[in-house]
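Limitations
The structure tokens in this dataset are predictions for the assembled complex, not deposited experimental models. Users should treat interface geometry with appropriate caution, especially where small molecules or nucleic acid strands are included. An illustrative entry is reproduced here so readers can see what is and is not provided.
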Amino acid sequence: MRSKIITWSMLAVLALAVVPLLVTDAFVLRILTEAIMWIGLAIAFDVLAGYTGYLNFGHGAFFGIGAYATAILMVQANWPFALAVLAGAVITALCALAAGFPTLRLRGAYFAIATWALSLAIQQLALILTITGGPDGMRLPPFLNPLYFFYLMLGVVAATFFLFWFLLEHAPFGLKLKAIREDELGAQSLGLNPTRLKIQAFVLSAVPTGILGGIYAYWITFIDPASTLSDLVSDQALVMVVFGGMGTLIGPVIGAVLIFAFKTVFWAYLSDFQLLYLIILGAVIALSVVFLPNGLWGTIRNRNGGRGGRETTLASRPKRELAAETSKQNLPGGLKSCAQKEGGK
Amino acid sequence: MATPLLELQSVTKAFGGLTANNQISFKVQPGEIVGLIGPNGAGKTTLFNVISGYYAPSNGTILFNGKDISGKPPYALAALGIGRTFQVVKPFPGLSVLENVLIASFLRYPKRKDAEKHAWNILETTGLADRAEVSAAGLTLAGRKRLEISKALALNPSFLLLDEVVAGLNPTEVDLTIELILKLRDQGVTILIVEHIMRVIMRICDRLVVLNFGEKIAEGTPAEISNNPSVIEAYLGETAA
Amino acid sequence: MELLPQALIDGILLGGIYITIAIGFSLVYGVMHIIDFAVGEWIMLGAFLGLYLNKWTGLDPFLLLPVVFITFALIGYCLQPVIHRVVSGRQGNPLLMGLVFTFGLALMFRGIALTGFGFYSNSIPSAFSASSYFYEQGTFFMTIPSIRLAGLVYALVITVALHWLLKKTNFGLGVRALAQNREAAALMGVNGKRTSSYVYGIYVGISAMTGVLIGSILSVSAQMGPNYTIVAFFVVVLAGMGYLAGVPWAAFLLGLVQSFFLIYLDPGYTMLAVFAILFTILLVSPRGLFAKGV
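Predicted assembly:
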């Protein structure tokens, strides 16, 4: 299953990479670029929400911080884009550290509140500062090359996806985060330092979000608090993750694609009913919580006999003789009676 | 005598006005099984939480291998070699049995492959290997208690705190668990155990420490304790009077 | 300096309203461990019901409070089983799901209200709206609009009534038992589901009534919800989650911070100041000012 997901993901990335060779329509390219961005935002959101069990309602703030940092460095300091976006990533990481220290010592509910308050405060800050242009926003030097942005977005999101896959599904880090999600207190007795792990997860979630914000700013060439810092970024990421399936990497991707596709169609044909979108977004969240608590992907996997939408398959059981032999070094076996007892159930 | 593995020096834990543990001192020597007993509400679980770092002591010192560990967080103590189980068993319900043990294995085996091997060994030892792929929430009470021990064991601890690991098990399961505890002792794991079932305590413990209303009222071998008048009074209390 | 008494009295009057926003919210958290993201939306919906009832009947909003309470208490009572189902599910992460669910509700309510009522801002006229008390001595002077005073009286009445309900009645005993220990309460014969439904109903009812009050003191608009959600959050975190006795003090503190910013500093910085306080409190004492939260 593990290798299957990697193979399919690589194929998907390759397929996306050849799309611009076949389709030259600017609108399609634009939609695809944004869809890819949302996939990145959703999987980054899920690091904290699904794997660690912390809802970050300030996710949009990190997107905005990345966007504004890049824009300010490019406009005020004349930095080249590549340098500005990297600096934006560093700034986002620092903000995540600063915000994470007090907020991540808190349990789930407090955390959601604190991050939401943080995002409101940053919105406010962007509105009153002069360097951000206040409510008028900022214009960036235009660079009108849709292909450049398509490949940049695809590259960054694909890199993020594979990095996350390695860290969360392959390396011990992902399981440790899940232990925090399941039982934070109990995890401590197993040698896990929850605060440290949570801050690592927070930074891991914030940095790609900030980078995507920077790319978005340069791509769209205009940012203002309403477009990059509003709650809508966090809200949509939340819907995508919950609807797709929390605590998995594939779930948020599916959620992002479906919700974004719906959004695009909706705005194209029903733009007179913009408010309806808000209602539908809310209804999708509420209904999927009640009827699809594991999200689409989790439900599909459960149907197919998988457990809890998990993507990891573990190394199979070693041969009994071998196991008994090695265990003699640490803990001599000889408890066959126990083994048979529990196993016989 | 060698340095005790664990030494409590007049450890006190108070919650506001309520003193759950008052000036408790005792030592645990390497290789011993020491039982911590006392009526309900005597402060046994609180003391466990203090020793394992979940509560900082309000007063007093805890030495582990001669080093002061009072107030250190649980994860630091786990790294030092202190493992514990919880009275109310807490598996990670959304994860499989193997994953539960794997998480604890990472402390000693940071590489996933090594950790997986270690986790399988532990599960073979504790008899859960056949249930490894099952969700931890799907285990029976006996299975969950065994998983709890497995997780603590995966830390390769030199000192193990067991909180009511046999309560609620049927006689066969109790015997199996006792067998496991004695095996661990033979491998050099020092054990402090809280238990209500006297049959178990009397059979496995080298020494007993008795708490009542947060105070230590007696300490000695099981034989001495069973003849100690103040212990009998604490347990039988009003019925004896 | 001359404005100091005015700033103080404004802060206290504002704090009074905040008490009623946060008290039910805190109770729901204490009993059901649910953070209701929709708290501001209940206030908004209540305000609109008050507005329309006032338009149709011409009755004073204060007279309409019981009608609004009963309507929304019923809605809350009927909704609670769904929330219960969400937070007690065996799959997923139940507590997180409660948060997500109410968040979804909030979005939905806001969308519906914006569709139905538009973006206009209204206010509910009351007999108290016109008059105000004026006090002057030397250079000190202050104005107390009687509607705001009525708001404070309402807040005190609600607080006292809730206190009585929780401390003096059997129902209150059950609620407190439930907040302490669910299983033990069940053994004592407290019907957890039913009691939770009543608590949630009472909370939604109170929030809606407070909405009517806010509508006549300040204003009613479809996008007002999040402002009051953040107020509820702030007060409750400051008080310590689920610690009811801390709520009034935290509410007055928030009222004072806001009125001082309005009078002495730039109101644009209020949100930043509120967040700075929240941040500091969480850093220093995560369980609230009194370190009594859960």
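Some entries come with short summary sentences. For this one: Chain A touches chain C through 50 residues (CB under 8 Å).
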